[in-house]
Structure formats: structure tokens, C-alpha cells
Design a protein that fits this description.
Layout: H1 7-29, H2 40-69, H3 72-110, H4 121-140, E1 147-151, E2 162-166, H5 173-218, H6 220-234, H7 250-281, E3 288-289, E4 292-296, H8 298-316, H9 318-325, H10 327-338, H11 352-358, E5 376-378, E6 394-400, E7 410-415, E8 422-427, E9 432-436, E10 447-449, E11 460-466, E12 469-477, E13 481-486, E14 491-497, E15 504-507, E16 518-522, E17 527-532, E18 537-542, E19 548-553, E20 560-565, E21 570-574, E22 583-585, E23 598-600, E24 604-609, E25 612-617, E26 628-633, E27 639-645, E28 650-655, E29 660-665, H12 673-683
Antiparallel strand pairs: 1-2, 3-4, 5-23, 6-29, 7-8, 8-9, 9-10, 11-12, 12-13, 13-14, 15-16, 16-17, 17-18, 19-20, 20-21, 21-22, 24-25, 25-26, 27-28, 28-29
Helix pairs in contact: 1-2, 1-8, 2-3, 2-8, 3-4, 3-5, 3-7, 5-7, 7-8, 7-9, 9-10
């Protein structure tokens, strides 16, 4: 027997070691998420697969090489570890199907809509995994005492002075029953049956879900409009059943598909093992030469080797399975093959194409060509900018005070996305008011206040109109509550409570028919909340940063979400994946937090700075000119929020002096309707030509 006969299986075993080590690195580096199954069981399976491939190399490849080379030193080393490695491989072979059952059961549970994903699930999984592995070790510990290495020092041939022989325990009838029936049943038969049943259930459930999703996507737009109308008549979202409520996230589906494929590869090797066991227990004549049970036939040898190779192959191909089913692993594999070999510094798992675009140089307040789109990214963070004494192109046209019941300052504003005629204001005392900008401020119909009993208890942090229906808007306040409002009936449709206050929220501005029901909420923690307004449920996206303070959906990529952190980092997420950040950018110093994010088509950006407004223009892409900053002074206290009204070329600002200022072009200030009427009457020519 030459080394060429074990060359290919040996190479596969070596590949299995490195591929599973690569998978283990990805599983360990990935931060746990409440929106996808845990990576604990896959990580443990990767460890066991590494050890199984190493055991194959030590037991089979070394055996063939020492006989072919007649290496006495290798022969002695082989017999020094064979008992321990063989016993450990048996423990490993028992632990792998047990962990496969646990992982498959976990995936099945994630396909159940009523499953409650508690925060203590991770600790329970660790305890269960440790308990199962410990039990497998205890069950297979007697294997250490079944074989022993006998020495024959008087033998003239060095390669025959050591031999593996059974001990007295191996001939005990109780051990024969234990090893022949008990071990075979719990290691081979039971896992085979249980895994087949679990995977049949998973496949059937996935099939039903896919049919449901296809039907849901077909009528998604019309269903959403009907559900919004149903909300207004039913008084809440808790009784609404939607297709999205039962939709399984892509991260869950990919995890389930990967585990189903892994189990199928295991079932192939396990099925081959069961077939060999049946032949052995029935003493099939095909296994022996001329009926002699002490002389194995070529078929017996081939089947035995095939079982070992099948188990090893099932461990080695895990990387291809995860690469086919898991985009994160696939992107890491592509990155490893194309960039790591070129000597570039390795980065965390993520969407490399996104990161490549985000790593482009920035010019103070903007990023160019995000995701191959000519969309300029603005961050209006509270930081010092270069102040210049330039001519002021804007002047104050109006100064009004919101009709809050108490003397309080407006803290946040929002404009409806149509003609921008309606302004939504939130106050420091939790009140919410709306103003019709098309009416004169003196008109009593210009303002509308929400009932005080429905408002927040304190400081309103953010608010926004729904893009496709200005009768709906959402607010978030320091009391930890996000509320969905209906202007038709002046009531709260739904509300979501969080442990920490929502600092910023953004309702997706996707303007196609049906819109987008997702509201992203930043709560100054590592978790980003995603609220589905149709289903009334909140999901989470995890980040490695502990303080996400700003949030924004990309207007050109429906599922791309950007977040800013208190330490100056910029994060990109894919809402469909449910994973951590796809890419991370650090364009600012860690002492400067990204407290606001905006996408803009123009070259202007307004930055609140103390009691002033910095009205800046950013040069177009390719122009290295300076940022033109102009100072607007009108408030007597700090400016809380700034909005740009594109249709009328106006700038709106809210300050701590309880005033709302409307800024317009210099020299185009218009008075009130009543004042204009008086002026026109006074200037009218009432004299006749005869007089």
C-alpha cells in the first residue's frame, strides 16, 4: 500500500481542518443577534469537525505512511497515541449527531411564529451544549479500556514489536451488549430517525411559508392600504394579521437551509454506516473470504473505509454548504481569496462592496457616490465649523410661537413630503402640534394641537410624517414611547415602549405604491429597533458600537440603513439580513458624535450651532474648494432643529427661546394677509379723474 492511496483523502482531511477553522473564526467574530439563530451549535460543530479531520490524519494517513516508509520512529509514535485518539474520535462521533439534533431543533423553533426569543436563551444554550458534550464523553470513556498496546521486545522485526490488542473488558458479555446495542442505537439509529423527522417538518414548514410569502408579495401594496384603513376603524394593530407578521427573515432562512444541508450530508454517511452494521450483525457472506470470519473481504474493507471517508467528507464540505446558504460566509470567502492573499489588512465580516464604497474620502459633511449612486450624504453633527463673516443671503420672514399649553420650547420639527405645507412640532413638555404653512400665522385654523392626554409625558425627541399619507405620523419621546398617530380621528393608533428613550427615528420614505412600513429607532444603545407598523412588532439589529444615536434609511436602496454613533462611527445595515453592521466607517474623531444623518440632492446643509445656524454650501464632487459657511443669527437661545422647505426655498428653525423662525431670501419678505390688505387699501387710488 503506497502513499498515493491515501493522498486524496489526506488532502481532503487537511482541507477540512482549515475550512472548519475558517468557519469557526466567522462564527466567533459574529456578535449574537436576537433576530437570527445562535451560532453556538455551528461553532461547536466546527470544532468537532476539525478534531475529526485531525483524528483521520493521525489514524489513517500516518498508519499508511509508516508502513510504506518502514519508519520505526513514526511506528512508535503512532502506537503511543492511537488508544487516546481512537477513544476521542468515538466521543466525537457521538457528540456530532447530538449537536446536530440540537441545532436542527433550534432552527425548527425559529420557524415557529409563537416562539419567544428571550435574552437568557444564550446562557441556556451554553449549559445544554456543555451538558450534552459532557454526557457524550462519559458514555464513551469506557472505550479507553477496550484496547491496549502490547509489546514484543524479543521480535526481530522492529515494525512488529508493538501491536494493538483487545483487553479483558472487551470480552465481557455486558460490554458486548453495551457496545453492540446501546451505543449503536444512541449514536446511529436514534439520530438518523430524529434528524429525518425534524428535517421533514422543516422542509414542509418552509414550503408553506414560501407559498404564503409569494401570495403576500403579490398583494402587498393593496394589503397595506387596507390594513391602514382597518387600523383607523379597529383602534390598534394587535388584531391585525398581515403577511409580514409570519415572514421569516433571510438570516433565519439561510441558517435553516444550511443546517438542513449539513444534516443531509451527515445522513448519507450515517446511512452508509447503518448499512454496514446490518451486514455485520447478519454475518453477511459478502463481508468475508470463503466464509472465514477472520479474513475480511475487499467489500468489507471498502465499506469500512467508505464509512470513515464519508464522515470526514461530511465535515470537510461544511464550508461549501455555508458559502452557498450564508451570504456573510460567502463574502468572507471571496474577501479571503481576493484580498487577504494580496496582503491587505483583514476587516470584520460584512458586505465588502458596501464597505469599499464607504471607505472613500469625505469632505467635512458629505460622502460621494454611496453604493454607486450619485447621492450626497450629509451629517449635520453639532460641532464647530469655520465661521466667516459673509453676507447673509437669508433673512427672517416670520417668527411664531407654537400653541403649547405651557410655556415650552419646540424641540423637533418635520415637514410632510408632498408640498411641504404642513409642519409637525414636538415640544419639551411632550406636546405635539401641527401648523398649516399655507395659512397666515394669525389665522386660528393655522395651528392644530393634539389632545394633551394623548401626548408624551416629556421631551419629544423626533417626529415624522408618513410619506404616502400625511394623515399618519410618528413621534418618539424621552418617556421611551414611540407613538403612531392618526389625524383623521385625532388619536393614537399604536405605541411601542422601549427600555431606553428613542433619540431618533426614521420612517422609510420609499414613495412607491404601498410605501414601506418600517420605522428605524435609535435608542443610544447597541441595538437598533425596527418597527413594522403593519404587524405592530419590533425587531432588532445589533451593532458592535454601544451608542447608536442617529439613524437614516437610504432613499435609493430600500433595505439599506445607516446609523451614526456617539464615538463618530458610521454604520451600514441591511434590514433583510438581521445581522450586524455590513460596514463601518470612522470619518470623524471619536470625541465627535454623529447626531444627525441626511441625504440631500442639493449642495446646501444647515447645521444648528448654539444659538445660531450655519448655512453652508459644499462644493460638488471633484471640486477641492472650501466649504462656504454663512452665519444666521435670529434665536436668543440654542437652536434645537432646522428644516429646509424646498418648494418655497425657505429655512425653518426651532429654538430654546420658544420661537419658530421662517427664513427666506433676502428682500422677499412678505407681511401678513391682514397687513397686506390694509396697505393695499391705503395705497389704492380712490380719486376720480374729474376730481
Amino acid at each position: 500500500m503506497g502513499p498515493g492511496q491515501t493522498k486524496h483523502p489526506g488532502l481532503v482531511a487537511v482541507f477540512g481542518v482549515f475550512s472548519n477553522a475558517f468557519l469557526l473564526r466567522i462564527f466567533i467574530a459574529r456578535k449574537p443577534s436576537n433576530d437570527s439563530p445562535s451560532k453556538l451549535y455551528p461553532a461547536l460543530l466546527a470544532v468537532l469537525d476539525i478534531l475529526l479531520c485531525i483524528a483521520y490524519l493521525l489514524l489513517f494517513v500516518v498508519d499508511v505512511q509508516m508502513i510504506y516508509l518502514q519508519d520505526v520512529a513514526l511506528f512508535t509514535a503512532y502506537h503511543s497515541y492511537i488508544i487516546w485518539v481512537l477513544s476521542f474520535s468515538r466521543m466525537n462521533q457521538l457528540a456530532i449527531p447530538c449537536l446536530l439534533i440540537l441545532a436542527t431543533a433550534e432552527r425548527l423553533a425559529w420557524l415557529t411564529p409563537k416562539m419567544r426569543r428571550s435574552r437568557s436563551a444564550g446562557r441556556r444554550q451554553i449549559a445544554v451544549a456543555v451538558g450534552v458534550v459532557t454526557l457524550c464523553v462519559l458514555i464513551r470513556i469506557p472505550a479507553l479500556y477496550l484496547l491496549d498496546v502490547d509489546t514484543f521486545p524479543g521480535c526481530s522485526e522492529p515494525m512488529r514489536r508493538l501491536a494493538v490488542a483487545p483487553t479483558i473488558l472487551a470480552s465481557d458479555p455486558w460490554w458486548f451488549f453495551y457496545d453492540t446495542y446501546f451505543i449503536v442505537i444512541i449514536q446511529t439509529v436514534i439520530p438518523f430517525v430524529v434528524l429525518i423527522v425534524l428535517n421533514i417538518i422543516i422542509v414542509r414548514r418552509l414550503g408553506r411559508k414560501e407559498k404564503l410569502l409569494v401570495a403576500g408579495d403579490t398583494v402587498e401594496d393593496t394589503v397595506e392600504q387596507k390594513q391602514l384603513e382597518r387600523r383607523r376603524s379597529s383602534g390598534g394593530s394587535r388584531v391585525i394579521a398581515t403577511f409580514r407578521l409570519y415572514k421569516t427573515s433571510s438570516s433565519v432562512r439561510s441558517a435553516v437551509y444550511a443546517m438542513v444541508a449539513i444534516v443531509c450530508t451527515y445522513l448519507v454517511s450515517n446511512g452508509l454506516h447503518i448499512f454496514l452494521l446490518l451486514l455485520e450483525k447478519t454475518h453477511a457472506s459478502v463481508l468475508y473470504v470463503d466464509g472465514d470470519e477472520y479474513q475480511a473481504s475487499g467489500v468489507y474493507t471498502a465499506l469500512s473505509d467508505s464509512v470513515s471517508i464519508a464522515y470526514m467528507l461530511s465535515s470537510a464540505v461544511r464550508l461549501f454548504i455555508y458559502a452557498a446558504c450564508n451570504r456573510e460566509v460567502r463574502q468572507q470567502l471571496i474577501y479571503f481569496g481576493t484580498r487577504l492573499g494580496a496582503g491587505e489588512k483583514e476587516t470584520p465580516a460584512g458586505w465588502m462592496s458596501v464597505e469599499g464604497q464607504l471607505r472613500r474620502s469625505v469632505n467635512a459633511t458629505l460622502l460621494h457616490n454611496l453604493l454607486h449612486r450619485d447621492v450626497r450624504f450629509r451629517e449635520t453633527c453639532l460641532r464647530s465649523m469655520e465661521e466667516r463673516r459673509l453676507c447673509r443671503p437669508l433673512e427672517i420672514h416670520q417668527s411664531v410661537r407654537p400653541p403649547f399649553t405651557r410655556q415650552t420650547a419646540p424641540t423637533v420639527m418635520a415637514l410632510e413630503g408632498g408640498e411641504a405645507n404642513f409642519l409637525l412640532c414636538g415640544g419639551a413638555n411632550g406636546e405635539v402640534s401641527l401648523r398649516n404653512l399655507g395659512l397666515d400665522p394669525a389665522d386660528p385654523m393655522a395651528w392644530m394641537s393634539m389632545p394633551h392626554k394623548l401626548c408624551h409625558r416629556n421631551f419629544v425627541n423626533d417626529c415624522q410624517f408618513y410619506t404616502n399619507d400625511i394623515r399618519l405620523f410618528v413621534t418618539g419621546a424621552q418617556d421611551g414611547v414611540v407613538k403612531l398617530w392618526d389625524l383623521n380621528e385625532v388619536r393614537v393608533l399604536d405605541e411601542w415602549r422601549f427600555d431606553t428613550a428613542p433619540l431618533q427615528l426614521h420612517w422609510h420614505e420609499w414613495s412607491t405604491k404601498g410605501g414601506n412600513p418600517l420605522i428605524a429607532v435609535a435608542t443610544k444603545g447597541s441595538q437598533i429597533r425596527l418597527i413594522d407598523t403593519r404587524a405592530g412588532i419590533a425587531q432588532e439589529l445589533s451593532s458592535r458600537h454601544q451608542s447608536v444615536v442617529s439613524i437614516r434609511w437610504c432613499p435609493t436602496r430600500r433595505h439599506l440603513l445607516l446609523a451614526g454613533t456617539q464615538d463618530g462611527a458610521l454604520l451600514a445595515f441591511d434590514a433583510r439580513s438581521g445581522r450586524g453592521a455590513l460596514a463601518t466607517l470612522q470619518p470623524f474623531q471619536k470625541t465627535c458624535g454623529v447626531v444627525a444623518l441626511r441625504f440631500s440632492q442639493s449642495g446646501w446643509v444647515a447645521v444648528p450651532y448654539r444659538e445660531k445656524i450655519l448655512w453652508a454650501t459644499v462644493p460638488p464632487e471633484g471640486d477641492d474648494g472650501d466649504v462656504d459657511v454663512r452665519e444666521l443669527a435670529g434665536h436668543f437661545q440654542s437652536v434645537n432643529d432646522v428644516l429646509y422647505r424646498n418648494h418655497s426655498q425657505q429655512l425653518l428653525s426651532a429654538g430654546g427661546d420658544q420661537q419658530l423662525l421662517v427664513w427666506g431670501a433676502l428682500g422677499q419678505k412678505l407681511g401678513s394677509t391682514a397687513r397686506r390688505g390694509i396697505e393695499e387699501t391705503a395705497r389704492a387710488d380712490a380719486w376720480s379723474d374729474e376730481d
